[in-house]
Design goal:
The protein is α/β, with parallel strands linked by helices. The chain has 17 helices and 17 strands. The two termini are about 20 Å apart. The site of iron/sulfur cluster has 11 residues, from loops.
Length: about 375
Amino acid sequence: MTTDSTTSPVRAVYVHVPFCIHRCGYCDFTVIAGRDDLIGDYLNALERELAGKLTHPLPVDTLFLGGGTPSYLSPNDMQQLFERLQRWFPLTAGGEFSMECNPDGLTSDRMAVMKGAGVNRVSLGVQSLHPEHLLTLERSHSAEGVEDVVTRLRDHGFTNISFDLIFGVPQQSVSQWETTLRAAVALQPNHISTYGLTFEKGTPFWTRLQRNQIHPVAEEAERDMYELAMSLLPEAGYPQYELSNFAQPDYECRHNQVYWRAEPFYGIGPGAAEFLQTTRRRNHRSVTVWIERLKQGASPVQEVDELDADLLAREAVMVGLRQTRGIPLAQFHERYGVTVRDLAPESYESCLAKGWLEEVDQHVRLTFAGRFLADTVMAEFF
Ligand code: SF4
């Protein structure tokens, strides 16, 4: 086995900013609301985590600030966060610096600080452009607010804007989803991500589901919504490049491609995961525990998984199949010392025969039909 899967240099970092104005009912992320008093401690803990992880600054090609709501930080706190990151993870020339923002509260002074710090990709949590669905999702912005933010972002010189959209919102019809998609396209973001709403255990939505107080859309309608996104968006100039992601040419998210190619990345902040060489680590999800551990000079890591060669290869299949172009067969073999087929020969053949997988241009990929069954196909490799 060649070793580039375990020795390739780290060129990407994810930083988790957990603060939000409130917790949306469906949210399963590492989030804290109503605790702005912790922001100073968070910034200090972040500095400790960075200093404990690196002995010297590491230039990176992609930096991704996710949350939570990174744009919830005041301009001053944001500035402090950026200064810490620039000190430890300077961005290489032409690098991608993404930041997740909520349309609500994305003021012009925040935009100015972001621009000054080199943020060059803004991922907006739009979720819907339909007033009732925004209400159901407990989002505080309006469709008009999104339009205003997009205009102001462009005025501030941001030329790479992405929208996150959610389908399968309770009471949502396929035609309403189409209206949201078309309204999104009309605003001409450069990239669109679409996610089916999930009801995760522990969230208020999950509790309401158990109590029969909220009703998911029918499975068939959800399938139709996904299919609609996969036909409408490419026709509108956003080819699909991953199961949930669509982009204008050259606007694919470079940072997320690091995950799908099973390349290494650092993860900083509460709940953040990282993948280095053969080890995956996840920080403690509790913001206060994460802060406290770092304050005491202890490790913020809660989980560590050591992956053997077999598991590295299987996980690479799982993430690699998310990309519409699929997995390059020869490169995979060279990197993992095993072919994709050899990992699960019978399943591989059966998925090909059923028309869920196909081999095209020296790649294996999910077919259009296979994308609806992605979880089932991926599970065949474990
Ligand atoms: S804004 Fe996003 S991260 Fe924050 S609570 Fe809502 S869904 Fe979760």
